[in-house]
């Protein structure tokens, strides 16, 4: 597109019709848009055609046109009068991060790209089941699919309404919705049968959906509003990652960078402007604090940082909002593990060192645990402790993560030191202390400043699509460009994994910056 | 498209998915179609996506795909299994000639192009008003528009149902509908406000509509069926003419040909494969038998041919089905006029020659008339006669037609003798005896065999679009290629018109073949 700064809203003025120029109203406008957008075709939906003649006459043959495109094909989505004759409101769009657990909506001014408002809500499909598998099984028959689909559509409608009201924007002034979610969430959002996603050979219904009419999905926005759902690369590499790549800019950089979304699944993209390789693998829920009895999502009273004094072994817990501790989040777990190791409370195998732990070490049913907060100190009235089982699980997860990173880099013949930037995506990722993650050998030992947290890159990429036609093109191009590497858990992978199950690694030379208290 | 013979139905087989090839079901099929159709994008609507995974597995990763395109952009519209595993019915389409008075539907097998069945019905909008103007005025407010729109949609649904039932075709096996009608009828069919069509400067809402979802229009066919409405060149040159051009093949011929749709409006296209010029002008209803008191549409008992013996002045009426006469149709009027003139009953000004008419000539209220059938001879019990007023009106109409033909040919510098073929379009046109039309100077004096009747070319072009992707492309190209000549009723036009108000013309040298009885 030529008008980079104008985003999706194009201001046009056309000459009024005359006996010498009897071009139809729609074609008159479309011809102008075609020349501005340098394209052959601009489609118009029927409801817009019906009102177009009245509006364009009212506005003196000038209009602000909201346009959108689907793989090169432009569509006139909505119209407003020129600003001096039409003060009926903004041209708005909504970017959505459609998470399995949480959904975030951001209302964006399509003309300026500015954020107007934002809201978040729990994915209402949680009532079917907190994890994806349960929802997919539930959707195995048509009634179940319709049910789980309608839950998320209703959730969108309700919270879009609320967000618009709170922001003083009329819902009918929302012309575009860009939705970024993993492959399963996108399927359920579209009402597509997700059954084959989880069954070998793991096949989605669609990789690159068309843009859709919001109406067709039952989403209440402007009558002709369009919905863009980010394309996926496969069942385990979804549109949320494509959106994250758009947001990171990896695909435009000269230098090689890596993007990692840390979670139950570790999704990794490696590349630059010339090539992109991606893979995904199970890292285990331990990284999200999801295995430990006291693991929980970040919220007030949850331990998110830990300091252990190597000299005294004293544990200094930091909780969100400074409240008495009631649990520990994923980034807190990584911090804790790093501190336990650095202070010598666990050895390189992750086993508790009895002498160093002192009376914090307890044992019941043959399982050792270390107490982080006593029943008196905790908010729950119960002891907060981490068991050897929790630690073993965390070590397996961090080893899986490291092995995935090592495998993808080896696949393309890139060393960790070749990485100019190591992007950590996702809200959870933004809380991880890279130094702690390096200390336990979860991520490679790269210089400070190499690690960059992207925050909610899934939402960020969706918002970029709302403000720039280029970003939309990029999303499609990225999907088509990515080489997806199927991780074969072969002997070589297992050997790497075994080596990575030490703290930080069986080969400490890989982590020169990690200083460990030697007892 | 490369597969000329296969029409819109493409048979494909794809390799089943595997761990090494995790392309989504839809993309797997689409990629194959893209390579066959040599295109970048093939869209799929949501309802089809929902059923696609189940179907394609059931059919062993093979399918007959009904595809359609809208200005270069392909869409997968429907699917059936390969013939050896799926005997659930044909892939069908419907071609529609949407006339102001009459609607004709033709059910077509999309794979073979064969006609399966045909039906016709009166345009139900006649209850609003028999002519276009009344309907447009009625549609001036939203409720009126919705009313007149819904009448034709309901009519389509009802008669499509009946046609399909009679032909043993399931309505859900109809994937395409191609509609050819004049600009006003197309607007009312689409529910677009037609008000500016009849108000200077005569501007349609749209010249080239997108193809639409049948569902969006409320037309009940397959769930994802598409509707193509022929584009128009302007308010007075509609999609029915574009369809007629496609059918005639003028746009592909080396030699120059002319296509004339004779009616209240005379629409004319002149050209060849390199250029096309069109114009439209009022010829008056006289040519359709619409002015005379005894004028009526062709039906049993209506006079469609007349012979007058120059020697005796005896009148030999031919009626449809040989029934006693009750009126005269348009082609009968032209025949009658030619015979009156050839037999010397009217002079070159069209005035009755008293001596030649004998006792058939009557007069009342100062207006002369010639009796074709007495009250005893007629089926109505009333005398059937043609007045001087009827004849004057017919002469004005034939003069207008000839002047329009002369004007458009002069505009491009083509003589009548340069015309290789003179196509007469429309059902009415097919009844006209060219020799009679030449005799009265309505059309130029060209050799026998130059004149060709096309029959219902509007329906014919629509049916061609259903059997050939090329024909669809041609319809759009023709629209874009046509130079529309606005007929200015200036002094030069009026001079030509005055000269043409004689029988056959003030300059008889233009009609050397016309032999007139000299008294």
Main traits of this protein?
homodimer, 519 residues, alpha/beta, 6-stranded mixed sheet, 14 helices
Summarize the structure.
Chain A is of the alpha/beta class. Chain A has 14 helices and 22 strands.
Task: Give me the secondary-structure topology.
The structure is a homodimer of 519-residue chains.
Chain A: E1 9-13, H1 25-37, E2 42-44, H2 46-58, E3 62-70, E4 73-80, E5 92-98, E6 102-109, E7 115-122, H3 132-138, H4 142-167, E8 174-181, H5 183-190, E9 212-213, H6 214-217, E10 226-229, H7 239-248, E11 257-261, E12 265-271, E13 276-282, E14 302-308, E15 315-319, E16 327-328, H8 330-342, H9 354-357, E17 361-364, E18 367-373, E19 384-387, H10 388-412, E20 421-425, H11 434-439, E21 451-455, H12 457-467, H13 469-481, E22 483-484, H14 491-499
Parallel strand pairs in A: 2-4, 5-8, 8-10, 11-20, 13-22, 14-16, 20-21
Antiparallel strand pairs in A: 1-3, 3-4, 5-6, 6-7, 9-10, 11-12, 12-13, 14-15, 17-18, 18-19
Structure, described:
The structure is a homodimer of 519-residue chains. With 519 residues, chain A is an alpha/beta fold. Among the domains of chain A are: 4-80, Ubiquitin-like (UB roll) (Roll); 92-229, Nucleotidyltransferase, domain 5, CATH 3.30.420.480; 286-394, no CATH class. Helix content of chain A is 31%, strand content 24%. Chain A has 14 helices and 22 strands. Chain A has helices at residues 25-37, 46-58, 132-138, 142-167, 183-190, 214-217, 239-248, 330-342, 354-357, 388-412, 434-439, 457-467, 469-481, 491-499, and strands at residues 9-13, 42-44, 62-70, 73-80, 92-98, 102-109, 115-122, 174-181, 212-213, 226-229, 257-261, 265-271, 276-282, 302-308, 315-319, 327-328, 361-364, 367-373, 384-387, 421-425, 451-455, 483-484. In chain A, the strands form five sheets. A six-stranded mixed β-sheet of chain A has the order 7-6-5-8-10-9, with helices on both faces. A six-stranded mixed β-sheet of chain A has the order 21-20-11-12-13-22, sandwiched between helices. In chain A, helix 11 links the parallel strand 20 (421-425) and strand 21 (451-455). The longest helix of chain A has 26 residues, at 142-167. The relative contact order of chain A is 0.11.
